[in-house]
Amino acid sequence: MSSEIGWRNIIDVLNILSENDLHGLTATVTQGLLKEKRKSKQDAIEVILKYSPDVLSILKRRAVTRDVLFTYLHNKNVSIELPTTKDKLVAKVCELWNLTSPKDIKINNAESYDTATSTNSQQVAESAENNVNAMAKQFVRWFYEMMNSNEYIDPSHFYFDARLKLNLISNGTETTEETESANAIVELLFRTKTEYNLFFNPNLTSDGTQGIFEQVFALARDPFSENNWKVKSTELNLRSQRDNVDTPTLTNNELTFNLLSLPSG
User: Fold this and answer.
1) CA separation, residue 175 to residues 85, 165, 171 (Å)
2) Which among 2, 12, 7 has a CA at the least distance from the CA of 64?
3) Which of 51, 66, 96, 120 is 20 to 30 Å apart from 264, CA to CA?
4) Which among 137, 20, 13, 31 has a CA at the least distance from the CA of 76?
5) Residues in a beta bridge with 230
6) What is the phi/psi pair of residue 65, to 5°?
7) Count of alpha carbons within 13 angstroms of residue 121, beta-carbon side
8) For strand 213-222 and strand 228-239, is the pairing parallel, antiparallel, or unpaired?
9) What is the pLDDT of residues 34-62, one digit of tens each?
10) Are residues 78 and 96 in contact, defined by beta-carbon separation less than 8 angstroms?
């Protein structure tokens, strides 16, 4: 019953969005493959529902802003304690819809969901479960393919309370920016990549020499998302070329200094 409530009410949330926002969201959920603008808001919403794996993934989309969620809850006469965050509003919506478990937030449209366009971290990791090096390489390929796209990374690949520390190193000066929450992380990563016109080309060799950037991740399975692997925290160093004077190996990389050495593949 609760899944039916979620299905019905997510349409009410999407109807708050403008036609332009809905069009952008249809492009996002179809990985840019559906570029033609829908004829109506109803058509756009049908596409979004068809190509979204669950209700929660729609609520976490960037287009579904804090303002949209607040408006929806206000219209439902739900009292909101201010100030608030998008994560808290999403939780309030889930509470209103009685979505308390993964099976409840799952939309019953698996047959119409195009899995070929929704590769997630679970698929990347499971084939390499018993080989940490192979898993790491597959994760890196998958993650930076998303980083180099012209789209925001899907926030669902991060925990709600995930953390990012971004270090910009130029002319001997280091600037650090830290943020928390999945949506804030994907926005900061996309803004940084766009602002500096970056293309990430990770080094996958066994010695792992440093380059213009270094990044480490902490991954953990999410029991509330079908036990998928998600990013719990990450730290990224970005260096200007003039500050990259040598190519030390990962064993003396400051980001991995305190990590255990991985077994050789």
Assistant:
1) 26, 10, 11
2) 12
3) 120
4) 13
5) 220
6) -80, 175
7) 27
8) antiparallel
9) 767 777 888 889 999 998 888 888 998 88
10) yes
